[in-house]
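Q&A log
Question type: sequence-to-structure
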Amino acid sequence: MPRGRIRAKIRRSTLYTFACSRFNPSKEDGPHNIQGPGYSRLVYCNQPHLHEHHPLKYCSNYISTTKYNIITFLPKALFEQFRRVANLYFLLAAALSLTAFSPFKPLPTIAPLVFVVGLSMAKEALEDWSRFIQDLKVNLRKVSLHKKDGEFDHKPWKKVRVGDIVKIEKDQFFPADLLLLSSSFEDGICYVETMNLDGETNLKVKRALESTLPLDDDPSFREFKATIKCEDPNPSLYTFVGNLEYNHQTYPIDPTQILLRDSKLRNTGYVYGVVIFTGHDSKVMQNATKSPSKRSTIEKQMDKVIYILFSLLVFISLISSVGFIRITKRELPNWWYLKVWDRKNTYFNPDKVLESGFYHLITALMLYGYLIPISLYVSIEVVKVLQAVFINQDINMYDEETGTPAQARTSNLNEELGQVDTILSDKTGTLTCNQMDFLKCSIAGNAYGTRASDVEIAAAKQMDMATDSDDQGQNGIQGSFKSFELETVITSKDEHASKAGIKGFSFEDSRLLNGNWLQEPNSDVILLFFRILSICHTAVPEQNEETGVFTYEAESPDEGSFLVAAREFGFEFCKRTQSSIFVKERYPSYQEPIKREFKLLNLLDFTSKRKRMSVIIRDESGQILLLCKGADSIIFDRLSKNGRTYEQATTKHLNDYGEAGLRTLALAYKKLDEAEYTAWNEEFNKAKTSVGGDREAMLERVSDKMERDLILVGATAVEDKLQKGVPQCIDKLAQAGLKIWVLTGDKMETAINIGFACSLLRQGMKQICVSSTNSDGLIPDPKKTVKDNILMQITNATQMIMLEKDPYAAFAVIIDGKTLTYALEDDMKYQFLNLAVQCASVICCRVSPKQKAVVTRLVKEGTGKITLAIGDGANDVGMIQAADIGVGISGCEGMQAVMASDFSIAQFRFLERLLVVHGHWCYKRIAQMICYFFYKNIAFGLTIFYFESFAGFSGQTVYDDNYMLVFNVVLTSLPVISLGVFEQDVDSEVCLQFPALYQQGAKNLFFDWYRIFGWMANGLYNSFTAFFLNISVFSDKAFRVGGQTADMNAVGTSMLTCIIWAVNCQIALTMSHFTWIQHIFIWGSVATLYLFLLVYGMMVGHLQTASPVLLEVLAPAPVYWSITLSVTVACILPYLVHISFHRMFYPLDHHVIQEMKYYKKDIMDQRMWTRERSKARQSTKIGFTARVDARIRMLKEKMMQRRFSMHKSVLPR
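Response status: OK
Response body:
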């Protein structure tokens, strides 16, 4: 118990009629029949030593989520590396470099491979080490464990065994799946938070069996022994079947007695439990998925390019070998003066030409290996690491409140961020803050509450922008738009922004505060409204001794916010006993609170099926009242004829609140006379104490009978506080063309409310709710009946969408976990997916962690598009791992999601910048970099092949070996790295203002086959131009004043110079964004060539192959400089013409924006810039922009109708 708090002691079981009812089972409803397969678990309670040998030896409580261990790391990591096609080729090349047929020394071939593979393996090891450390922290958590003779001691979680008795205290996590034996409450009630399992913030009520309630202290376990027979380990979070054999009797166990691992004990001092499932047998771990190995789409496509280049390599090697065989057979015997042939030399042997040809093929494969550059992988690794550093250092994704930056936990998927098609998001803790604020209310047909919700603020600002950019010049219409509460909304928010807030209460309206409600008309109805808020609940108050302020332990945040609101209105709930509720009312005088007692006669608690809650009380005057709150659809159906006075006005207010993204409940009451209540109560008690399977139905029938003929009082509107910037982020992502699915463990009503709050749902959007109904037990095959019904719903909904004529019509599909179980089966899942992808929004509620992963996998595999999953809890780990990209939010639900993620951010709103800015940049950078790399290596590598035809296919290269080494490592590496790290087609602000730019990545415009083959053709042209222009100039001609002709070294050096100039000028034309770094890298690389040739030429006598070719041979010859200029211009001219033609006649979005920025239209012509911004978004039906567009269309229609009516009225008759 926290220090300074006072809690009333009550038997909490009296608060629940439906949630955790207990009754003595009859013979018909006795122990579960658990014989047969799937029900073999046998647990000896308080005797864990009996589970040390087979067949009762169960897994330990040690858990591991790592991909590797000490033994498996080397083989598994090597397998992952050599899954890459290129790495296999380089491994083969490295092995061949050790043979006598290699044209190169082994070191230049082996060293890059070792570096690339070693770096990737080191990254894998580091990431897995982080998972190991997280597992270690969990395994070493302490829990109070029964040793013997009623003594408990603290042991680490990993030491917990099946059959152990554990004691869990308030706010601790459960270390394994437990059977609840007793709690600090005398009736065995306890409250459990399952946020880590299903994302729900509402507390679940669990209740121990009657027979184990005496086991409520440590000594009582001295002689305790029992046996549990139950189901085998399975991933179902919401079911459990088992029996407890204790004191020669057998008791059925159901889910209300099971405490699941990773859920937390709340609002309860302590509980005792016996361990049933440990470690990977526990239900949460059964829902876990193995850590996958992820590769980006570009990397997979790059493998296909490697296949093509390898095919080209084999093709030209075969041509070279055929040429070599021909020359060896026909010409070599006549070249006796070369002295290359003797009978012992198998490489040049006219008698064995096929064998010689095979050996030459090996040489050729290595000689032309520059077509498949291993330096590409080195450069990509370096570039991705630097991109990850920039993501980590982005100050705009730094959360000041928590001091948490964004983190790229793996750099393998940077470019994938720019190609996402579908986002699958958790709700609680990801979109919301787990906080409810009482914001507005409707009482007696009057709306109260002036403060705007976050959704209203965002929509009003968007409406203002939309009207500013309206080109039609219709002042009347614009004036109508401006009246969309913009000024009121913004002002109301600004006025109170500086006021100190009260958690759970953001209401602002002086008419109800400080006792002013007493001056309102219908003050008697307002009094009833406040009393319903303060009395109709199951919460328990706690008073802080130091401050005297009451706080409330409520089952749900909604209920807590109602009590805080009632307190602020002057009706403070202060005490609860077994039979009474006490409220301090500032009525009739606001200055003098009076403590009033209300006798609690009955409480009909809230369930997801009932969607309402009622209390029956007797006030101080003796009047019996039923106070009820619930979903408006449920309450309105139960109103009496004279209780509908405020129905029309309240309905309008409820619609307005829903449009503002608020969660609503309707409040009603009913007066009862003594005889009516007495007769009903006898019937109710009879149903409550009945035995049999129809007990629940009897209770519901009797309760429903009472909850009729109600009188409407009003409605509440609570804001489920979204994380900062969530509506704006979702709107921007929708404009970028991204689809957003919400997968949550919450109830359907809660999920729908959040859908409205996030603008994933809106008024006018057609909701398709796919649900399963319980079939009659008399039907021969109830499962088939349910499946057929679900399939019919899906088929009908799909046909409805296809037949829809309205282009602005929007659909949303909403499905619960139970129905999803059927919809995800093999014979139905693609029909469900087909329906979902045609809808603007998809919301899956009451889903388990495993279902989240299965849905994610279905979207990924069924659509073939890139998926991103984002969540913040342990229940999101499977989804995060199943998606192409997993993003973890470092929120209040622990670090499990972050540890399993590829990227982590502190708030959902940072996802906008991560995708729209960094994703867009990284995709274009990597795509352009890879295309350029293939281009430059083809341009360089094919010149070696061309020279072979001039050198008799002898395996001789035109370049010095050291030239070939420095080409990729020194002379062209830094420019391509600068392209991959610093390139920006537009700056970050423009990316956010023109979200449609993101679709360039989603449509893969910069790494499609057209562009890849275009760059390859460019490389082929450059190689052809560089080689043949140099050969034509230097062949059989004097090129110096003294009449000297060029040798092979001079031709090779000149050719290298031309290639270096051409590829560096080409990359300069490719870049859109220059800094001093790019200039240094590009032109510095050209300068480095000359510096290298000078230094290399000075190494004569130290290096066998060195010669002063530049200083003494080429530099004095004007033809060297002229051929360099001619080849460079000839190489880049076609590309320059190509990009100029496209910019003029087929410009892409970023071309247009670059030109506007160049002419400063964003500054000089704001109207044009704003108009272009409004156009630069994908057509979407979600987000507050879509909501505003719908509102504008409605206003225009109304205006046109009004004008038509006016025009019609003035026509002459």
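Response note: The two ends are 84 Å apart (CA to CA).
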